[in-house]
Design a protein that fits this description.
The protein has helices at residues 3-11, 64-76, 78-88; strands spanning 15-19, 22-25, 36-40, 45-49, 55-60. A 5-stranded antiparallel beta sheet has the order 1-2-3-4-5. The radius of gyration is 13 Å and the shape is globular. The longest helix is centred in the last third of the chain and has 13 residues, at 64-76. It has 3 helices and 5 strands; from the N terminus they run αβββββαα. The protein is of the alpha+beta class.
């Protein structure tokens, strides 16, 4: 991947929060979906809906004990995550 493509890739998935090994981010091409956040871990990635309520949307490789930890972090940071989603997607 050339430098320009690399930069466009990361601009399309901005990081909004980092806690430990967890990176909370969005994909720019998902603006038609309800508010949500993706969380990348060393083991995989999961997605949590933020609206209308917080719940696990998908999980690819994240162990269940980490899902519980991530869910708690999403609850603790839900206002900032929701605001960042709406700001990023111009809503």
């Amino acid at each position: 991947m050339d430098g320009g493509s690399h930069n466009r890739y990361f601009l399309a998935m901005p990081t909004v929060l980092r806690i430990g090994n967890f990176r909370f981010h969005f994909y720019s091409d998902e603006r038609q979906e309800p508010a949500h956040v993706h969380i990348r871990t060393p083991d995989g990635e999961c997605k949590f809906w933020l609206d209308p309520s917080i719940r696990l949307a998908s999980n690819r490789g994240v162990p269940s004990h980490e899902i519980r930890t991530i869910e708690n972090l999403v609850f603790e940071n839900q206002i900032a995550l929701r605001n960042a989603f709406y700001e990023h997607h111009n809503r």
